[in-house]
Design goal:
alpha/beta; TIM Barrel; 2 domains; nine-stranded parallel sheet; five-stranded mixed sheet; 10 helices; 20% strand; rod-shaped
């Protein structure tokens, strides 16, 4: 019995040893195989396909669709596109799809409403976001600069105050020897108005048409003309320039006009030709001797009626819009002041009233 037991124990021990050796052999074989595979991979690494960057592809596609870089913000994984109205979203997507087929056949373009995605094996690798075209900005109309000169002031203080209440941008032309001339000039300057001397000159039809005290006449010699001009300029303070009162005869005589223009140039003033005659030499002479000058474009009140004022105002605005600037002259008639008040109050932002010195040539 003892010998049988010992024999059975030996057989059991042998089986265990055999099983243990088998496990060790298997483990050693697996270790050898895995080590060999790892060593092979280390020595001969597989060449993995690199994913081509999509950003250059998008830029090229947008360029083919007619879009510059200003219409898109492109990063490595997304593009935000705002095409102009002239380029449709469909055209952009067609060019992108074409680029994908040519250079990235494994990828797929998927549209999702306002967005689109580029996918590879179900994975989103690039996003395209479309925004509506930018709103077209309305081109602002260039502002017209107009000057409105009110003549014949100085006779009535109440009328002068009424004129100054219409707009602070009017230009006031004051006669030199009237009762309130000095007072009107001082008040106008205090309120910020530009002041002109309304210099009386000989008209056709004199003496039936009287230009008033201190007028310049064709019959005067050069010395007398210069004395009268100097005296008139001293009769008003704060003068920036001069325009002629009447003068339809005087302004046609170039030699006499030269004397006036030289006196104004020597004092640093400018001249506004009221154009009381189509043959006036004022503007031509002024430019010839280097004096700053301008010509009026419209008389707003050749007759004292609101209907006439409206017609002339329409003409004034047409010239202002056509040339970018215009000069109008009017007088302190009741109908004119009423029409001027309404017209100035109805001006849009595209028209700016400025002192006449701002629209000189």
């Amino acid at each position: 019995m003892p010998s049988r037991k010992r024999s059975s124990k030996r057989r059991t021990s042998t089986k265990k040893t055999a099983r243990a050796l088998s496990r060790w052999r298997t483990a050693a074989l697996l270790f050898a195989l895995s080590s060999g595979v790892l060593l092979y991979l280390l020595l001969f690494p597989p060449k993995l396909r690199k994913r081509r960057p999509l950003k250059p592809l998008k830029e090229a596609s947008l360029f083919r669709a007619g879009l510059g870089r200003e219409y898109a913000v492109i990063t490595e994984n997304r593009a935000e596109i705002r095409p102009p109205s002239r380029v449709s979203k469909e055209k952009v997507l067609r060019e992108i799809a074409r680029g994908i087929r040519e250079h990235y056949p494994e990828a797929l373009l998927v549209r999702r409403g306002k967005k689109a995605e580029i996918q590879e094996r179900g994975e989103v690798i690039y996003s395209l976001i479309f925004h509506p075209p930018p709103l077209k900005k309305k081109k602002a109309k260039p502002r017209c600069r107009v000057a409105i000169v009110v003549d014949d002031l100085g006779r009535d203080w109440g009328v002068a105050r009424e004129v100054m209440g219409i707009s602070p941008s009017l230009t006031l032309s004051i006669l030199p020897y009237e009762r309130y001339s000095w007072k009107v000039a001082e008040e106008a300057h205090r309120r910020g108005f530009e002041v002109l001397l309304h210099l009386p000159m000989e008209p056709k039809g004199y003496p039936l048409k009287d230009p008033g005290k201190g007028a310049l006449f064709v019959s005067m010699d050069e010395g007398e003309l210069r004395r009268r001009i100097e005296k008139a300029l001293e009769a008003l303070p704060y003068i920036r320039g001069v325009n002629n009162h009447m003068g339809s005869r005087f302004m046609e005589h170039e030699r006499k006009v030269i004397v006036v223009m030289e006196e104004l140039r020597n004092r640093g003033l400018f001249f506004l030709d009221s154009l009381t005659t189509p043959k006036s030499r004022g503007y031509v002479v002024a430019k010839k001797i280097g004096l700053k000058a301008a010509q009026r474009d419209v008389f707003l009140d050749n007759s004292q009626s609101e209907e006439e004022f409206k017609r002339q105002w329409t003409s004034f605005m047409k010239k202002a819009h056509r040339y970018g600037r215009a000069i109008a002259i009017c007088h302190p008639y009741p109908s004119t002041l009423e029409g001027l008040r309404k017209a100035v109050g109805g001006l849009g932002k595209e028209v700016e009233i400025v002192p006449v010195s701002k629209v000189l040539d």
